[in-house]
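INPUT
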Amino acid sequence: MDFKIGDLGTSGTQSAAEHAPIVILGSGPAGMTAALYAARDELSPIVLTGMELGGQVSLTESIENYPGFPEGIPAQELIERFKAQAERFGARFIMDVATQVDLSQRPFVVKTYGMTYTADALIIATGASPRKLEVPGEKEFTGRGVSYCATCDGWFFKDKNVIVVGGGDSALEEGLFLTRYAKKVTIVHRRDQLRAQPFLQKQAFAHPKIEFIWNTVVTEILGDEAVKGVRLRNVKTGEEREMPIDGVFIFIGHVPNTDLFKGQLELDERGYIKVQGWVKTSVPGVFAAGEVADPRYRQVITSAGMGAAAAIEARHFLAEQAEKEATSSTVSTA
Ligand code: NAP
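OUTPUT
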């Protein structure tokens, strides 16, 4: 991939600085589409991609509901196409991670480990991360039997027994995906009713490899070198038991990646960036797009739509600022 790798120095010294009219944080569908629109407006956007090009889309195998691809499209291919289209108009993708921002004055400042970027307008498209169970063993066994991505890790569980935690669309969709590899997939849900869409429920109930454990939570993940089992508690009866298992897939929702902006932007009680007019944050000139500001729709198409809107609003904002500056310089020289 033709990335410019940011200088990931460990000394913490900021060695270089660069300015762009628009800096975009994140390279999921929202960031990619914002980059395309800003580039088409000749605003030379810089995209700091974050750790994962494509964001959460890169954790999916295939996208079946993005318009224009009646047969579906492999997620990696869609990401590459988004990127190529934005690059065609001059967007620059830099594989680097923002570690600090200062939104108190313009130009806004974004620091990474080795670079400082300044921007006249900022588009935040940092997405969300899988919510953690926060039980003993989860952290220790992540990558050794605990996973948040069936597409990435399902293959390692060929002919093994796995549990899926959660009762939403993700749990069922990923559980169904895991049946390709696993001998048995047991879905452990804390209630006795699923949150997932009816068509997914129908598929899961009918699948011979899928079983359900209701009203139950995982209280501990057990193992030595790798996961060997889980401790379960029935929330109705209080009964606890151990269940031998080879893998634990956790799909219990997401948390927005907004730590960087706490105290600088208005966030809602769950930590999502508050927006007005779809993409305007509490700081003029800072826009938010995609899941970081959208707990409701969370689709590739809606995130892409927000990315486009954010770039258009950023363009309007920059034009207004330029007009104001022109007016004030005319006044001061008059
Ligand atoms: P979600 O809808 O928020 O579901 C999370 C599930 O995890 C719920 O069943 C919840 O239980 C359970 N849960 C939450 N915290 C838990 C905890 N600490 N311990 C045990 N269980 C816990 O999340 P999602 O499935 O990731 O879906 C998020 C959004 O993306 C939804 O709007 C969904 O429709 C959308 N989505 C759509 C598709 C699709 O269209 N194909 C695919 C994936 C996701 P409760 O039910 O008891 O609250």
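end of record. The chain has two domains: 17-129+254-333, 146-250.
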